Amino acid sequence: MKGKHLLTLTIAGALCALVMWHFNTNTQSAEQIVLHYPTVQKLNVQKPKTRATTKVPISSNPTPICSTVTKSHKTYIDDWLVKLQHKQQVESWPQFIEQLPICLRSLAHDYMSYKMALTKVDPFLNIHERFEALTALQRQYFSQQVINAWFEDENSWHTHTLTRWQILSDKTLSEDMRKSLLDAHISQLPDAQRQVIESSQRFLTLKNNWHSMDYNQLSTNFGGEAAERLIALQLKQKQWQHRIRHYKQAYQAIVAQGALEQQDARISALKHNLFDSNELKRLDVILAREQAQSP
Where do the DSSP E strands lie in the chain? Predict the structure, then answer.
């Protein structure tokens, strides 16, 4: 059971890492490289004919030096998109492309094409198939130099998450061997990625076991302030369970002893004596679920 529990934690950690790489867009600067304009699939964009292009503030950062491309250029374009989003103009982004430095406009076109293509990736692909699709899209819309500069961190997440998925999917491995391989893999991750995995494992440990931990255990894992809040929550949870048990016992007594015409009134009074309006909704859900599960 212990091995299965640890395996569950590791699986969740792997999935958490998969989610986190998607938001990890502004972390490390890549090595500067010579800027090459990609030649794949340009969008045919026409300037607006009826009015001047609205001026949209871009980034507070200085205009990027366009002789090289770095991760900061992707950040610059993302800032531009955020400003458009705030003004509800992102759907009309081609009309505002001239707000970007000339050397970034081609990259911005390809970046938007890439983002739109991402929305069409089949959501039912497994992890391996999804990573292959993402890699193919990057190669379709960007040069290798741009991929290295813009997606190095994300692709590192891809590679390591895929490794964990392959270990978990290998049915020839025993539970102990699978755990050993996962532990070894996680221990060799870059610090940032390893910390994400370990944080997700601590979170799942809390989620699954907090109700049975004492103050010392909670304090050791999550700090004194969090331990105090969790102990208070434990007490509240126990009181809630006690009231539910009391209600069920009293309900059975009413049904067994009370006259039929008095049962509804007595049960209603019992509920309102034990629970407030919000708790009554929770109680109804619990009772309905138990009734549905009963043979």
Answer: 33-34, 68-69
